[in-house]
Amino acid sequence: MGLPLSxxxxxxxxxxxAGKLRAVRQRLYALKPEFCSVTYGAxxxxxEGTSAAIQEILAEGMAPASHFSCIGATKSxxxxxxxxxxxxxxxxxxxxxxxxxxxxxxxxxxxxASDLVTFIREEKGRYFHLDVAAYPDTHxxxxxxxxxxxxxxxxxxxxxxxxxxxxxxxxxxxxxxVDEAQRLGVDIPVVxxxxxxxxxxxxxxxxxxxxxxxxxxxxxxxxxxGDDTASIRAFGLEVVVDLCERLRQGGAPALHFFxxxxxxxxxxxxxxLNLGQRPNRRAAQTMT
Length: 288
What we know:
alpha/beta; TIM Barrel; 11 helices; about 50% helix; disordered C terminus
């Protein structure tokens, strides 16, 4: 049984990186994703790069989703950016609170992602498909799991169409989150965010910054491998394939991959799961 797929990229920093990302996207396009999202830096710091990547995805014939963080923004600036996205042909937005850039004192007219969702619906009606974030392991700044769940429910009631989770490695946490949200009366599709494990140091660093939980048994195994990159990747592949299989069997509506602008790990995970469309012969010959 297949599942709808989507992929997340971040804006490349150099022309060389941009060229590499184009090749990565082509390999992943062979799997027929529903959409490809592009991240948005703190305070909109990568807005130009985000816009350029989105325009390339559109030109390549794929559906893009623009991350859109609202912290520090004004209604005027958000209104202007929405008009730009609509004129460009973007029809999907990942609506986030976001983080203030370092050294930024505050300000702005939006405090929460729910404020952004409400404003977009007031300004543009149902034109945009709106995704919001969900946190099976609880947002690191939430006062409690229940407070985090209620904040999520507010975003959904404000007009979200679907949610994409922060990455996690405990399938039970995802299913529990979905069940608890449904008990609050919010029942939009909650798409699991999947982070391939290819580097122990990278995973630890990301998880500390975003509050994603790494189960103790995974952390200990990764530490035991030390600098053995091959063993880390083989173990990470096994962990993530098993996670995706559990999510598929449990009824997850789709899978969203945080690619880190790489294709090899994602392609191998999906090959082992037999998910998505198989690449055609020409595409397969170009894979490295």
